[in-house]
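Voltage-dependent anion-selective channel protein: structure, please.
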Amino acid sequence: MSKGPGLFSDIGKKAKDLLTKDYISDQKFSVSTYSDTGVVLTTTAVKKGGLSTGDVAAQYKYKNTLIDVKVDTESNISTTFTITEIVPSTKTIASFKLPDYNSGKLEVQYFHYHATFTTAVALNQSPTVDLSATIGTPTIAFGAEAGYDTTSGKFMKYTAGIGMTKPDSSASIILGDKGDSIRASYVHHLDQLKKSAAVGEITRKFSTNENTFTVGGLYAVDHLTVVKAKLNNHGKLGALLQHELIPKSILTISSEFDTKNLDKTPRFGLALALKP
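Here you go.
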């Protein structure tokens, strides 16, 4: 793939990941095993409230093809085929879920040095079409995406954004919800080794005149331990500790507090991922 501006979904992704990734409120346990044939088998159990769910996932890679299969506790089977370079500089993703025969989806991504394009089509009797495009360079990119319902002949969504990336920082502005919201974010690494970072994000909803401002940070205590925290103007405080117990096996402890309502029970999450 070429080193171009990236997909539209990459705009603002660094800030989003720093503020949301690995923050959980459930108890999750997963174990991955690897076979000699290249199959990765992952078993996951999740406890949310008083309910317990789980799934078994298998992943197999052969040359330029990646196959993912997941079976959950309700006997739903989700399958995804990802094939790169069928045509130069492209990636094709086909997915479907059984027994929901109308869940099929086909996506094609095209990468160029100065632009990327994606097209996703739902494989059913009333297909929807999602389109996105970006132009620019790895340093600055302009992009837009839209979703079109072929049955009603109307656009379900349209979004535009701009992203700027430097070695030690990343910034983005995204106009979404059909122009009803705007989100601006900025991430800055505080040292050359990127052991620490600070992030700020502000979102405004025009229809409700509601503003949400969130600040957060990340600090790598050592090469095995990372701590993260975030706080928004509504008083929601989140904290996270992630530690590598043994190589590739991660323990994550997460919590969320409402600082404006200390009588409310805090939310805690625990995740353990074992990869021998």
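Notes: The chain has one helix and 19 strands.
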